[in-house]
Design goal:
A: alpha/beta; TIM Barrel; elongated; B: alpha/beta; 5 strands
Chain lengths: 447, 138
């Protein structure tokens, strides 16, 4: 007889801990997943289980969807720490506005979308809603205006102009033909669709504006000093691009984001280089010149053309090409040949945004740059943050290993400069050391 | 300045959360010599209830642990009012910049990569405990 018997089943679940801590741990782990750690709000579509059924059966549902920062990728430009602060400010403002709102009696739920948006749910048939109460649309506009006002106060106008805050409202009646759970989700999606539609209009307008800027060559080059940190002496200048003053495309970040969105990166960057090298102030010509280039531009035959490289060389004999760390991710092999050509044209290489986390330190070992530019997100408040100092120290150690000089970016306060000097970082740039200026050594044009 | 008679400062408590007993023992050896009371309850799931019931002056946290990772434990601790400001030092074999950034994003206070030097550990712990909101100010 075969003895092919199955072994007895074992309990899969381990025995509970004697102190019965397990249910509490499970609850804490669940909360950790369902609530956003930054805004402290429930992450959509999570809802308090005790209220789900009531929300799904709201007879006349009102939804306001407020979205920030999606269009030009605010978080990608300014980093997660600034964006965390933006989200906290918006969430706190929404709570305050709701508490004081004439629609407070109808308010049901505030949720975070998990990325760039907030959902506000109202029961518009709820008793106690006065006849003089504003419409949901008016309330959406008020929330949008208040969010923008608070962000301007906290972050300054230029930064907020990149954020593109939109709020839209949508109202829906209960429909007995439709299952309530799906009805709710569809109406939330409808509010998102209205916001997306508005953003699409904005995108098209900006695309048209960018085409005009490129067509009419309406860019200007500004130059920001790179200074020796202990004594403030000027080591070189970084060329920075500005669009037409007072327009939505004035900031380089917006210019490049719009160009990227419309596959116009190479056209824009080529014009940037033309603009920089055709308007070099005399003082910049005598110092080392740092110029940004994307991997798309560096790979492009127009840039790599020998005549182009020689022309750059004739305009300025001491150029450092800055390549962002994020451009290098996982593509060392194809980049090696390009970097060789850049070096053969007597240009130096800098890794920009180093330590921002796009790639590991092995990128630096592979590229062996002449300069490592420490990301400004690491410099901000570094004197208060041991982990930031730890990352900068490891960049300095690896810089020493490959013979690269470190430059810290975005220095705005003397405490940051002193902390960098303590870490033996030789060079830096930022508003504390010198703002970008159109006429270096001249009177006019500080930005 | 000497402590006034009868007002001895209580011994500072440090909890090491690492499933590797050898690492916990090494940390204990280094820090016990500094006058700290070092506890090592084991992995993250075992440590969580203890940390919430008696908040220490410092938590030293490994990242890779079975069941609950150090990242998750840190995130949970930062959500609780009792532990939202307790200093957390990550002590981990993960060396990437990305890991250090994750530590910052989750609310970690400092980071030390394994293998660690005793002097580095002492220096970081002293700084963190001195700045701990639980530590009485002079």
């Amino acid at each position: 007889m075969s003895s092919n018997r199955r072994p007895p089943l074992r309990a899969v679940r381990p025995a509970p801990r004697p102190d019965s801590a397990e249910p509490a741990i499970d609850r804490l782990r669940q909360e950790n997943l369902l609530y956003d750690s930054v805004t402290k709000l429930p992450i959509h579509p999570f809802e308090d289980p005790a209220r789900v059924s009531a929300i799904e059966r709201i007879e006349r549902l009102g939804v306001i969807y407020l979205q920030i920062g999606k269009f030009v990728g605010f978080e990608e430009l300014y980093g997660w720490e600034v964006y965390d602060r933006v989200l906290v400010a918006v969430a706190r403002g929404l709570r305050e506005d709701l508490a004081a709102s004439p629609l407070a009696g109808s308010f049901v739920s505030l949720r975070y979308s998990g990325a760039d948006g907030f959902f506000l749910l109202f029961d518009l048939a709820a008793p106690g809603r006065g006849g003089g109460a504003p419409s949901l649309d008016e309330e959406a506009r008020r929330l949008q205006e208040n969010a923008l006002r608070r962000l301007r106060q906290a972050f300054g106008g230029t930064t907020v102009d990149l954020m593109s805050v939109h709020a839209a409202s949508h109202t829906a009646r209960d429909n007995p033909q439709v299952r309530p759970s799906r009805h709710l989700v569809r109406n939330l999606q409808e509010a998102v669709r209205i916001v997306t539609q508005r953003q699409t209009r904005e995108k098209l307008e900006l695309c048209g504006a960018l085409k005009e800027v490129i067509g009419r060559r309406r860019l200007k080059a500004a130059f920001q000093p790179v200074c020796h940190l202990p004594d403030g002496g000027v080591h070189g200048y970084e060329a920075l691009i500005r669009g037409p003053r007072g327009t939505a495309l004035e900031q380089a970040n917006v210019l490049f984001a719009v160009a990227h969105d419309n596959d116009m990166d190479v056209e824009l960057e080529t014009l940037c280089l033309d603009t920089i090298f055709s308007s070099l102030p005399r003082a910049v010509g005598k110092r080392r010149l740092f110029v940004n280039a994307s991997s798309t531009l560096l790979r492009h035959p127009v840039f790599l053309d020998e005549r182009n490289l020689k022309a750059i060389n004739r305009s300025h004999g001491d150029v450092v090409v800055e390549i962002s760390e994020k451009e290098m991710v996982g593509d060392y092999c194809s980049f090696g040949g390009i970097l060789e050509k850049v070096r053969a044209a007597k240009m130096k290489i800098a890794i920009d945004d180093a330590g921002s986390g796009y790639s590991g330190l092995e990128t630096i070992l592979y590229v062996r740059p002449d300069y490592i530019k420490v990301a400004d997100s690491l410099v901000r408040n570094l004197e208060l943050d041991p982990i930031k100092r730890e990352i900068i120290a490891s960049l300095a150690a690896i810089g020493q290993r490959v013979g690269a000089t470190l430059i810290a970016e975005g220095i705005e306060r003397d405490e940051e400069r002193k902390a960098l000097v303590e870490l033996a970082i030789p060079y830096g740039q930022g508003f504390l050391l010198g703002r970008p200026s159109f006429q270096v050594g001249g009177r006019a044009g500080t930005l | 300045m000497a402590e006034p008679a009868g007002r001895r400062r209580p011994q500072r408590r440090i909890v090491v959360v690492d499933d590797d007993d050898a690492v916990a023992a090494a940390v204990r050896e280094v820090l016990a010599g500094e006058g700290f009371a070092v506890e090592a309850p084991g992995d993250a799931a075992a440590a969580l209830p203890e940390l919430l019931s008696a908040v220490p002056d410092l938590v030293i946290l490994d990242v890779n642990m079975p069941g609950m990772s150090g990242w998750e434990l840190c995130s949970i601790l930062r959500r609780q009012s009792a532990t939202e400001t307790v200093p957390i030092l990550f002590l981990t074999g993960r060396h990437e910049v990305k890991d250090r950034i994750t530590a910052m994003q989750l609310g970690g206070s400092d980071y030390l990569a394994k293998p660690f030097g005793a002097d580095d550990l002492r220096a970081k712990v002293r700084t963190l405990v001195a700045g701990s909101p639980r530590t009485p100010r002079a």
